[in-house]
Design goal:
By secondary structure, this protein is mainly β. About 15% of the residues lie in helices and about 45% in strands. It has one domain: Ganglioside GM2 activator (Ganglioside M2 Activator Protein, Chain: A, Distorted Sandwich), CATH 2.70.220.10. It has helices spanning about 5-20, 115-120; strands at about 25, 30-40, 50-55, 60-65, 65-75, 85-95, 95-100, 110, 145-155, 160-165, 170-180, 180-195. Strands 2, 4, 6, 7, 8, 11 and 12 form a 7-stranded antiparallel sheet that branches. A 3-stranded antiparallel sheet has the order 3-5-9. α1 packs across α2. The chain is globular, with a radius of gyration of 16 Å. GO terms for molecular function: enzyme activator activity; lipid transporter activity. Keywords: Signal.
Length: about 200
């Protein structure tokens, strides 16, 4: 997949989606469309964890619906607990980027230990979900230093209830991963969201 840090960013995104479904402040949507997905590394050029490639299709992505993805990257350091993630979510409003506050652990939040969140999502001892299991990609800490590759794989994205404040518009999300004051990597994604 990408670096373990980038893999971690992906798993964090999954965790956020699961939390979206569990939020008390939700309204049911028939479908969600994600358009114009793009990504970039946003850490220092010599950051120890870096995404090398990430491709997703189709564009637009429809939820619920099918998604194909492939990714690769590396990490030069082991990523272990406590692994912090600083998530900054911004929405474009009248031509300006406005930071979405952290509400019920969603939005621009700081997560003190994503390793613990992963253990809640996938109990230790349980096989990692597909396609991670097939390609021997880890889903629990520690994430060892090394190269990671996820060949093109198909996923089904289930229906998700979105919080009422997560509405149509353009978004950018920046995820910084680090531990004990050191930043290991940063990934930024941009997309447009339409829900109905």
């Amino acid at each position: 997949m990408r670096s373990r840090a980038s893999l971690f960013v992906s798993l964090c995104a999954i965790a956020v989606c699961v939390r979206l479904g569990a939020s008390d402040l939700t309204v049911t949507r028939t479908y969600v469309t994600v358009m114009g997905f793009s990504w970039a590394n946003c850490g220092a050029p010599d950051a120890p964890a870096m995404m090398k490639s990430l491709e997703v299709s189709p564009d637009p992505i429809t939820i619920p619906g099918d998604l194909s993805a492939s990714a690769s990257g590396y990490t030069k350091v082991e990523l272990s607990s406590p692994l912090q993630v600083n998530l900054t979510v911004e929405k474009e409003v009248a031509g300006f980027w406005v930071k979405v506050p952290c509400v019920d652990d969603l939005g621009s939040c700081d997560y003190d230990d994503v390793c613990a969140l992963l253990d809640q999502l996938i109990p230790p001892g349980q096989d990692c979900p597909e396609p991670l299991h097939t390609y021997a990609l880890p889903c629990h800490c520690p994430f060892k230093a090394g190269q990671y590759t996820l060949p093109k794989s198909d996923f089904y994205l289930p229906n998700v209830d979105l919080p009422f404040w997560l509405t149509n518009g353009n978004y950018q999300v920046e995820a910084k991963i680090g531990s004990q004051g050191k930043e290991f990597g940063c990934l930024k994604v941009e997309f447009a969201l339409h829900s109905a």
